[in-house]
Specification:
single chain; alpha+beta; Butyryl-Coa Dehydrogenase, subunit A, domain 1; three-stranded mixed sheet; binds coenzyme a persulfide
Length: 379
């Protein structure tokens, strides 16, 4: 936690300048090469961006959720692929250890994640297991002081870069209670990676299958040392992750508003800038209004998270609203640009494709609706 507001403001300002002066100008290179330049990844390490949410005693900045989303707003302003490089170390790739890991697991992995020396990744989804996350089919069978894992994990973000996976596998009977979370090192015997996924957007983000073929991991790889807790660990990780993603959606929407406004002021039709035409103004105004509402919503949910409130439905509602919102804002931004917004040369063209993922990963919009309604009815 940053106790001094001035220090937090300074950090937000530093990241804002890094995003706008270093990342935004590199977006077209990332689009063309489908990779983040190594020099940018090194800059991110030096700025401490890999350890935003990792506790200070393990070498991170130990930001609260409210502080972290102040940075998520900034990071979201550039192509989501940049944020994705540090996303798993701060979020789904490290939080399982932070919330449920043993002291030894924390002491070994967290300082390495915080420095960016090691990359953590999160492996829940499988070819036949998506929204129904409690039905994990990958098996883990105890064999002396090891477990033998078999199965395939799908669409795993940062898998090609990862040193370790928080990986959910079944050790017990059917349903969520039979799932255990493991820390599986990428060099474990029997672990291999699939071909890189070809995706609609977020070029520069690396995802692929993780294949476990009689993969041997030591028994102390169980997160927290307790079997059957893996589903709950995954859900706790996702509660936090959903707030972070919502913050990234706000940043992307702010960028899209800026792009649309700049274009509308410069583009002249019918003898005046299109920004002076009321139908265009309506699109700009609706986008700004929704973006602002989303920003306030994320900030409030983060505050409640930091207070220790039960925020399951608020996290889901925030992720639902913000991811849907940025889709509408991206659509309007393309509309304001007209034909130019359909061309690869325009930033709004790739944002339109990039933000589509936010409504799918870390729980689809329909899963968020189910979570919200269940919480409303059950608590
Ligand atoms: N936070 C904390 N605990 C949670 C939780 C949450 N968000 N959701 C469920 N749990 C707990 C429940 O309280 C329950 O605990 P008890 O056994 O002590 O009662 C346990 O976990 C099992 O929960 P439940 O019975 O609700 O499991 P379901 O199979 O019905 O879960 C949903 C259904 C839809 C909530 C779950 O599968 C889900 O979130 N799916 C989306 C997965 C996802 O986001 N995938 C993206 C992959 S990562 S990019």
């Amino acid at each position: 936690m940053i106790r001094d507001q001035q220090v937090l403001d300074g950090l937000v300002d530093l990241v804002r300048r890094f995003v706008r002066e270093r990342l935004v100008p590199a977006e077209s290179e990332v689009e063309a090469s489908n990779a983040i330049p190594p020099a940018i990844i090194q800059d991110m390490r030096e700025l401490g961006l890999f350890g935003l949410s990792i506790p200070e005693e393990y070498g991170g900045l130990g930001l609260t959720m409210e502080e972290e989303i102040a940075l998520a707003f900034e990071l979201g302003y550039a192509s989501p692929a940049f944020r994705s490089v540090i996303g798993t170390n701060n979020g789904i790739g490290s939080q399982g250890i932070i919330v449920d890991g043993t002291e030894a697991q924390k002491a070994y992995w967290l300082p390495r994640f915080a420095s960016g020396q090691a990359i953590g990744s999160f492996a829940l989804t499988e070819p036949d297991v998506g929204s129904d996350a409690g039905s994990v089919k990958t098996t883990a069978v105890r064999d002396g002081d090891h477990y033998i894992l078999n199965g395939t994990k799908r669409y795993i973000t940062n898998a090609p870069l990862a040193d370790v996976f928080t990986l959910m596998a079944r050790t017990g009977g059917p349903g969520p209670g039979g799932v255990t979370a493991f820390l599986v090192r990428s060099d474990s015997p029997g672990l291999s990676l699939g071909a890189p996924d070809g995706k609609m957007g977020q070029r520069g983000t690396r995802t692929c299958d993780v294949i476990l073929d009689d993969c041997r991991v030591p028994a102390d790889a169980v997160i927290g040392g307790v079997e059957g807790q893996g589903f709950k660990t995954a859900m706790k990780v996702l509660n936090r992750g959903r707030i972070h993603i919502a913050g990234v959606c706000v940043g992307a929407a702010e960028r899209l508003c800026d792009e649309a406004t700049a274009f509308a002021k410069a583009r002249v039709q019918f003898g005046k800038p299109i920004a002076e035409h009321q139908l265009v103004q309506a699109m700009l105004a609706d986008s700004l209004t929704e973006t602002y509402a989303a920003r306030c919503m994320v900030a409030e949910t983060a505050k409640r998270f930091d207070r220790g409130d039960r925020i399951i439905k608020e996290a889901a509602a925030t992720k639902l609203f913000c991811s849907e919102m940025v889709g509408r804002v991206a659509d309007r931004a393309v509309q304001v640009h007209g034909g130019a917004g359909y061309m690869h040369a325009s930033a709004v063209e790739h944002f339109y494709r990039d933000v589509r993922l936010f409504r799918l990963y870390e729980g689809t919009s329909q899963i968020q609706q189910i979570i919200i309604a269940r919480e409303m009815c059950n608590t």
